[in-house]
Design a protein that fits this description.
Elements lengths: L1 H38 L5 E2 L8 H12 L7 E6 L4 E6 L33 H8 L6 E3 L6 E10 L3 H14 L5 E4 L5 E13 H18 L11 E2 L13 E3 L4 H4 L6 E2 L9 H7 L1 E2 L2 H11 L15 H9 L16 E5 L2 E5 L5 H10 L1 E3 L1 H8 L10 E3 L2 E2 L3 E5 L3 H10 L4 E5 L17 H11 L3 E5 L6 H12 L3 E5 L2 H14 L7 E5 L2 E3 L4 E5 H5 L12 E5 L7 H9 L4 E6 L10 H7 L2 E4 L2 H4 L4 E8 L13 H9 L2 H16 L3 E6 L2 H12 L7 E6 L5 H16 L3 E7 L14 E4 L6 H9 L11 E8 L3 H16 L3 E4 L1
Parallel strand pairs: 12-18, 19-25, 19-26, 20-23, 20-24, 21-23, 24-25, 27-32, 27-33, 28-30, 28-31, 29-30, 31-32
Antiparallel strand pairs: 1-11, 2-3, 4-9, 5-7, 5-8, 6-7, 6-10, 12-13, 13-17, 14-15, 16-17, 21-22
Helix pairs in contact: 4-5, 5-8, 13-14, 14-15, 21-22
């Protein structure tokens, strides 16, 4: 009896499975029919003029869609004993004892090997992939920087939703996207095909546009998606082939329903070749028209020197989330915002476009990616966009400096915001300001006091420390001052005692092994704080002041500010620029620039740059692009150039000027000093040296002697390495600066020139000697950057 009943149930189950399969086929047919109908609205022409019947036609269709580079292709290899696998270009000479460098364990890129004999990506190679057993890929960019497709890779949690959002966003632009399940089965490739080869740069711009629209609908999509394009660079890297992508429809994977194309429900199309033949391919005209219509226009270039930033600006515009006045975007619930060392915003009832907008506020293009891309260097591991927040299921967390922008956004859409302020509210201090501000300083502090967070930009000598003391007295809250140099810590403690009614015992110090915060006004070394395990045991502060805040993008410093909450956050800097160009992070944590004092406001005497052209040339045997260290070695050893510089130093000494000769190369300073001492002079002068490697006591003694000489109105010549003449160096009588080494970075230029800008009654003008090596393209470009900085500081340039 039991056996008959079991047989009936098994038969019924078989019948149900058969019915289910038939229903799934009917659903798939209806959906495929819907896709075919929709495809009529896609831009472009079908990939093939018929459904391919023969193996030859199928391979012809396949290669027309997926073959980018014809002369070389990669093949998957596996080492089961070592549990390793990867792709390498197929080469007839691979592992040949005489011809292959790998056999000799010589490290060289295959593309740079003179013995390579690459196999072409032809029908024979493809047959081994489609029919097994091989798995091959295709390089996504040609050696002329063009491509025949653009693919985007989605994996990880939520990949189905991500690729669906991407496909839908493309469809809204009338672009046909083909979705292929990856080899692992836990991800997908989204393909866009072109009718002919187009610039990889333009193709990637199109993908960025689609991905940005997808992010608006699905803000949970990771910013890493912008790094998952094929090709992943605008230009092919030197000596390489660019990134590769595994080709679809591989036999063994296909049998597992992987590497196959699927519909919107991720059900494989019944006839893969029929589907691929109907895919719409975009022409160059189509792509251009879509970009022209939907991509925001980047501002025009002022000059060719700005071209390095152009693609970064374009991408920044494309990825922006704009909310027009006409859009009726409303939050269904009150918006709860919690203020602490970071801002936490509840997502309950928040439209996806607003989430995307907040996410975009905390995101910026990574300049290093664009620099490497432009220089044809590999961008592997270099994110294209940097997101400084954290998106969770129920909340988004962004840096504290974005508070005003976030609240302004919710005001714009008329959302009700409920603030939960969890920042410390310590007792007010009985503290007064003993100094007197100039009208310029007073205006700066008034602007800062209007906001809880903000940055003050002021040139060296403008009195940033004095203005900060005024802020402490006005707000009357316990304050933590963070510095990054010992000299700055000493200066701060001196100025706090001078300008506030504090005795030295009321000023706490956190430095090295000395950790004695008092909770009134404490001065801390950044390096000590970042390694301080007991941050939660620090006193409660109502205000944090970050001196030289352009150091914030340092990862450890950034992490520190995430962990120490306060109501007020002030950044001070003379140079809100960084060589790695990550200065946006400054504003994310300290707030935007609230006031900027210019050099022209600070000092009204004439400011002059004398440009001396040199005849320096590199020997022809070095070639057109020798390594940079070789260029500098020849430059600092050039006798004619050195004699020119020394003659100018002698003239400055004879005129009684107080000169600073600054270089980051000790051997150059030594050479100039020796040549200088061999000359004759019309007047007595004192020569001083400040260089790295000397002890603190010796340096302090040298500085005392320099100050004494300036008080005695003596002519001074100071040689110094660049690392020691920056933040915290103060010599008001300096009026002349020599730059024997070419410079480019704006921040360093402002720091060095700022040494001349401190007020002194004896100072009639300030003068910079700049040496232009006109025969080197590199130094010419560096000079053009200096030229812009000089003009921004109000200098008059005189060529001689």
């Amino acid at each position: 009896m039991m056996t008959d009943e079991l047989i009936k149930l098994q038969n019924r189950l078989t019948q149900l499975n058969q019915e289910r399969s038939e229903i799934l086929i009917q659903i798939a047919n209806i959906q495929n029919e819907k896709i075919n109908n929709c495809s009529k609205s896609f831009t472009g022409m079908p990939a093939f003029n018929k459904i391919p019947d023969t193996p030859e036609e199928k391979r012809q269709l396949f290669l027309s869609l997926f073959r980018c580079r014809k002369d070389v292709y990669p093949k998957l290899w596996e080492n089961l004993s070592q549990n390793k696998k990867g792709y390498s270009p197929v080469c007839q000479n691979e592992w040949d004892e005489k011809l292959c460098p790998k056999k000799k364990k010589t490290k060289i890129k295959c593309g740079e090997c003179h013995n390579h004999a690459f196999s072409p990506l032809d029908e024979q190679a493809l047959k081994s992939h489609l029919q097994g057993p091989n798995t091959i890929g295709t390089y996504a960019i040609n050696d002329d920087d063009t491509c025949i497709f653009l693919a985007c890779d989605f994996d990880g949690d939520g990949w189905e939703k991500d690729v669906t959002s991407y496909k839908n966003s493309a469809a809204s632009l009338s672009i046909d996207v083909s979705v292929e399940i990856s080899r692992s089965g836990n991800g997908a490739h989204a393909w866009i095909f072109f009718n002919d080869f187009i610039s990889a740069k333009i193709a990637r711009q199109l993908g960025t546009l689609i991905l940005s629209k997808a992010n608006e609908d699905r803000p949970q999509m990771k910013m890493a998606s912008y790094d998952r394009f094929f090709p992943n660079q605008d230009y092919i890297p030197k000596g390489g082939f660019g990134n590769l992508i595994a080709l679809p429809l591989q036999l063994q994977a296909r049998d597992k329903n992987r590497t196959v194309f699927v519909d919107q429900n991720f059900i494989p199309f019944k006839n893969q070749w029929e589907y691929l033949s109907q895919v719409k391919r975009l022409t160059f005209v189509d792509v251009n028209r879509i970009i022209e219509k939907h991509c925001p226009k980047a501002p025009p270039l002022k000059n060719m020197d700005d071209s390095d930033d152009f693609q970064l600006i374009v991408d920044e515009k494309i990825t922006e989330v704009n909310i027009s006045k006409d859009e009726n975007i409303r939050c269904t619930n009150d918006i709860h915002i919690t203020l602490n060392s970071k801002i936490t915003i509840s997502l309950d009832g928040m439209p996806s476009k607003i989430i995307a907008k907040i996410k975009r506020m905390a995101t910026f293009p990574n300049p290093e990616f664009y620099k490497k891309n432009r220089m044809r260097m590999s961008t592997f591991g270099e994110p294209r966009l940097i997101f400084t927040g954290e998106l969770q299921d129920s909340q988004i967390i962004v840096p504290a400096g974005l508070k005003d922008l976030v609240i302004e956004l919710f005001k714009k859409i008329k959302a009700k915001v409920i603030l939960h302020d969890n920042r410390p509210m310590p007792q007010l201090l009985d503290i007064n300001f003993n100094g007197k501000l100039t009208s310029i300083q007073k205006k700066a502090t008034e602007d800062l006091l209007k906001y809880e967070a903000g940055v003050l930009v002021a040139p060296p000598g403008a009195g940033k420390t004095v203005m900060a003391c005024s802020l402490i007295a006005k707000r009357k809250v316990p304050t933590l001052i963070i510095v990054n140099k010992d000299t700055l810590l000493t200066q701060w403690k001196e100025r706090l005692g001078t300008f506030l009614n504090l005795n030295p015992k009321q000023i706490g110090t956190i430095k090295g092994s000395k950790k004695k915060p008092l909770g009134i006004v404490d001065v801390a070394m950044m390096q000590t704080l970042t390694s301080y395990q007991e941050l939660n045991e620090l006193p409660s502060y109502g205000q944090i002041i970050v001196d030289e805040c352009h150091h914030i993008p340092c990862v450890t410093f950034e992490d520190l500010l995430k962990r120490v909450p306060s109501q007020y956050l002030v950044g001070l800097t003379a140079t809100p620029y960084r060589k790695d160009r990550l200065e946006k992070i400054i504003y994310y944590y300290c707030g935007p620039i609230r006031h900027e004092i210019t050099s022209s406001e600070q000092i009204e005497i004439p400011k002059i740059v004398k440009i001396k052209k040199t005849n320096f040339k590199l020997p022809e045997e070095l070639g057109t692009q020798p390594p940079i260290h070789i260029v500098w070695e020849y430059l600092i050893q050039n006798k004619e150039r050195n004699n020119l510089i020394v003659s100018d130093i002698v003239s400055a000494i004879n005129m009684g000027r107080v000169s600073l000769i600054i270089s980051d190369r000790k051997e150059q300073l030594k050479t100039l000093e020796e040549k200088l001492l061999a000359r004759n002079f019309e007047r007595i002068f004192k020569l001083f040296k400040i260089e790295s490697g000397e002890g603190k006591k010796k340096r302090a003694k040298t500085l005392e002697e320099i100050y004494a000489a300036t008080l005695a109105q003596e002519s001074i010549c100071l040689f110094a390495t660049s690392s020691l003449i920056g933040e915290g160096f103060d010599l008001p009588r300096l009026d002349t600066l020599f730059l024997p080494m070419p410079l480019s970075f704006k921040g360093r230029m402002i720091q060095y020139a700022g040494r001349l800008h401190r007020k002194s009654e004896e100072k009639k003008d300030v003068l910079i000697h700049d040496y232009l090596d006109i025969n080197l393209p590199l130094t010419l470009k560096m000079y053009r950057n200096r030229q812009k900085t000089y003009k921004s500081m109000g200098y008059v340039l005189i060529e001689s």
